[in-house]
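Bug #77: duplicate submission created two jobs. Keeping one. Sequence:
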Amino acid sequence: MALAYEEALDYVYSLINYELQRPVRYTPDVVSLERPRALMAALGSPQERYPVIHVTGTKGKGSVSAMCASVLQAAGLKVALYSSPHLQDFRERFRINNTLIAPEAFAALVDRIKPLVAQIPGLTWFEVVTSIGFEYFAQQAVDVAVIEVGLGGRLDATNILQKPLVSVITSLSYDHMYLLGNTLAEIAFEKGGIIKAGVPVVSAPQHAEGREVIERIAAERGAPLTLVGRDWQSVTGKSDLNGQTFMAGKAEPLQTYWTPLIGEHQAINATVALAALDQVRIAGLPLSSKITDEAIHSGLQTVNWPGRIEIVERAPWLVLDVAHNAESAERLTQALTSILPGGGWTLVFGAFTDKDVDGMFRTLLPLTEHLVVMKALNPRAFDTDVLADKARAMGFTGTIDAIPAVAEALARARELAASSNADSKQARILVTGSVSIVGEMRAILGLAPTRSAYLDQQAVQVLQG
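Kept job's structure:
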């Protein structure tokens, strides 16, 4: 009897779950490519049946992946996007032309893979999920797939890919240090593990410590390296409440682009995506000629990537962002200061126990007048009392409300924001700290999975023509 969707999902979550029980080290005896290789071989190696853009990094890999997929879709191609984690719906991880995998299709894939999993001891949750994505995209005969690494790169299940069109490394910073290393060089070594012999590599600008490792790995493997900031230039333009303008190119004159993703960091992400797509053009495949300048502009203008400085309400202001480490919180703060100068924010915050909350608070709390701490529906989430204590220890003197549940936390934030603004339409609420917090908030606000609020806002649609 065929599995129902919920049964299939329950089965997948019943496997060893490294999102809930992290290994104490990130080494081949704990996380191995041999298991996913064996599983994919049993399926007939579906991941080799379509060209792939492979993307890793600490920050921006989701945005870069979404931008690449959007441009390729604007080019008229059938485009797969594999990403993680999901915001609201598990099926977000498997998309084709931004359409989620159907529940019955997911259940059928699990039904097929389940007996194979039983034959390969130790397969992890993410390894099985990745195999589902690879097989689904092959079944659907996609023209191209954009595959985002789950964690790290060298030992990530997606790294069974043998010869992608291009390997992409976005901005590197400190996250998952207990697994990937405590220095940027160690982190770069893990991320640089996706570099393949002879396959072009595109990297975002990096701190010298990380850049040197990427350069060394690329040279050792004969992989031509394109470095944004050296081989491709990016000049940030105007950032406002509707999006980000920037200029980019590998030669003068630079072209002007616009994306609805807000912030200077998105200009860098978009330039990384442009450089990666340029390598796809150079590859000379039948799909390469379809990546026209028109498709590039259109794809960047219509990229759909929720939860990234996503303004979901404007009177009063309600902003959602998935920042979950110190550097991403700093970029968020810089963008907010640019588009909505001044402080007075009511901050709704929740985070996981493996995250640098002090680092995030250091940049977020100076903007904050009221703090509402909540707890995501995840066993790895910090208790609200712990977060409140951390905020006080950081010297925060404003009001703190500890309200674990998302609906109640938002209601209290609305009250606090309105009470501190004579003009209630100017009240400001920011929700951040983890992907889970933002996903839960989007759900109670009635926002559809995989559809950014800005796509339905008239100002953005006008700018998009």
